[in-house]
Structure formats: structure tokens, C-alpha cells
Design goal:
By secondary structure, the protein is of the alpha/beta class. It has one domain: Carbon-nitrogen hydrolase (Nitrilase/N-carbamoyl-D-aminoacid amidohydrolase, 4-Layer Sandwich). The chain contains six helices and 14 strands. The strands form three sheets. Strands 5-4-3-2-1-14 form a six-stranded mixed β-sheet, with helices on one face. Strands 6-7-8-9-12-13 form a six-stranded mixed β-sheet, covered by helices on one side. Helix 1 (16-28) packs parallel to helix 2 (63-75). The two termini are 30 Å apart.
């Protein structure tokens, strides 16, 4: 399974429409990949909360969904299109930080609204409403557990995704450079404790005065970093073995010994 992370820059000098076209072009260039991932809120910038309302769109029928659907179909890839500022119901409902997953035929396959909002009573935490359900999306090759940026700090969400069958965790992010050390530790920790691949795709550049960490990462179920980007724009492509999560769990069956919070379904 070939996975590609598109670590793009959110440049305030570039219009959203131009960045949308550029991202679609990058997706189309990945024909031959199985899964392509974009970062969190790449249309507006994860820290540009003053611009969220103006950049809001319907999740399934907005300009980003239309562009990404077409790009996924043209490239023939599964596309995790990062996240957008969704307003639902349109046009007067609350805002959500919403991830969109498209199938190779361009159909919208899964939608995830970010559960944990960052900001400590400022920014996203005030402007956005919280999602209320976890989402595990079944692909032919793997089950993707969907999470976004700040969710990474809440391991209980990832345990629930494992209970839903997730063996590959996809985390788009707009992570600040000043907490890069936390990013690296948390991405690897989520992989090790859940014995799952983690595909963590961040943004580059600076927006809303916040320098972005970049350093998108792909980590395997043993916690080994298979690939890591630098701080700038970069396309990161890795070949993965979808069977590796199950093999790791069989070889070192730590999840079998869970006691607290075990799903009883």
C-alpha cells in the first residue's frame, strides 16, 4: 500500500482558490498511490480563527469537496483531504473542523468532525463546535481511524478507534513549531500503544503569526519512524504493509492484556 502525505504551506499571500487548485494538482500528481493525505485546515490555516467564518463551506457540497472529489477521481486514489471549516446546517449553523475522505471514484466515503478543539477558551475552542463521534473508515487495504491535530493528545480516542478495528491512524494537523518535540513523541506513542500505523500530515510555513512545525511523519506499529519530512513543503511517500499491524499484535499481544476501558461489545 503506497501512502503519500502532502505537507503544503498555508501562505497568506496565496488565495484560498489558488491553494485549492494547487492542492488538487498535487493530488493528481500522485496517481499510482493508494492513499493521499492533506493537512488540517489547509484552506484557511489552523490558527487563523478570525477567518474561519469567512472560509466556511458545506462539507459535502462546498468548493473544497468538489475540487478534492474530482482530484481523487482523476488520480484514482483514496484521498483524506485534510480538514475544512464546515458550517452545518448551511448557512447559519455552527462551525466544525471537518475531515473528508474520498474514494477513488470521487465519492465522499467518510466525514469526521474534530472532537477535541484547541485553544483553552480562545480560537478554535470558542469558534468551533465539537464533533461527537469517532470515525473508523474501512478501505480495501486497511481500516483508517480518523483524528485531527489536538486529538493526538487524547489517547482514549485512539483506543476507541482500535476497538472499531482501526489498524492505520490518520492525523492531519496544523501543529506549531514551538511544540515540535511533543508532536514527535505523541505520534510515535499513538503508534506504539495501539500497534498501528500512524500517518501524521502537518502544514508548513507561517500563518496567523504561528510558525508551523511541518515534520509530517509515518510511523509503523512498532514505533519505527519510516519517513519524516522537514519543515518546508514536501511530498512524503512510503510503501506500507497493511498486514503489519495484525502481525505486530500477534507477535507482541499487549492489547490482549487490556483491563480498563475494554470494549465489551
Amino acid at each position: 500500500m503506497r501512502a503519500t502525505l502532502l505537507q503544503i504551506e498555508v501562505d497568506p499571500a496565496e488565495t484560498t482558490a489558488d491553494r485549492r487548485r494547487r492542492a488538487a494538482g498535487l493530488v493528481r500528481a500522485q496517481a499510482g498511490a493508494d492513499l493521499v493525505v492533506l493537512p488540517e485546515l489547509w484552506t484557511v490555516g489552523a490558527f487563523a480563527s478570525d477567518d474561519f467564518a469567512g472560509g466556511a463551506e458545506p462539507a459535502a457540497a462546498g468548493p473544497t469537496a468538489e475540487a478534492m472529489s474530482a482530484a481523487a477521481r482523476d488520480a484514482g486514489v483514496w484521498l483524506h483531504a485534510g480538514s475544512v471549516v464546515e458550517r452545518d446546517p448551511w448557512p447559519d449553523g455552527p462551525l466544525y473542523n471537518t475531515s473528508l475522505l474520498f474514494a477513488p471514484d470521487g465519492a465522499l466515503h467518510a466525514v469526521y468532525r474534530k472532537i477535541h478543539r484547541f485553544g483553552f477558551d480562545r480560537g478554535e475552542a470558542v469558534v468551533m463546535a465539537a464533533g461527537e463521534r469517532i470515525v473508523a473508515a474501512r478501505l480495501p487495504q486497511a481500516v483508517l481511524g480518523l483524528a485531527t491535530c489536538y486529538d493526538l493528545r487524547f489517547p482514549e480516542q485512539f483506543r476507541l478507534l482500535v476497538d472499531e478495528g482501526a489498524d492505520m491512524l490518520v492525523v492531519p494537523a496544523g501543529w506549531p513549531a514551538r511544540r515540535l518535540a511533543h508532536w514527535r513523541v505523541l505520534v510515535q506513542a499513538r503508534a506504539v500503544e495501539n500497534q498501528a500505523y500512524v500517518l501524521a500530515c502537518g502544514t508548513a510555513g507561517t500563518h496567523a503569526g504561528v510558525e508551523q512545525a511541518g515534520h509530517s511523519m509515518v510511523v509503523d506499529p512498532w514505533g519505527t519512524v519510516l519517513a519524516e519530512a522537514g519543515p518546508g513543503e514536501e511530498v512524503l511517500t512510503v510503501d506500507l504493509d497493511p498486514a503489519r499491524a495484525a502481525a505486530t499484535r500477534a507477535e507482541f499481544p499487549v492489547l490482549r492484556d487490556r483491563v480498563l476501558g475494554v470494549s465489551r461489545r
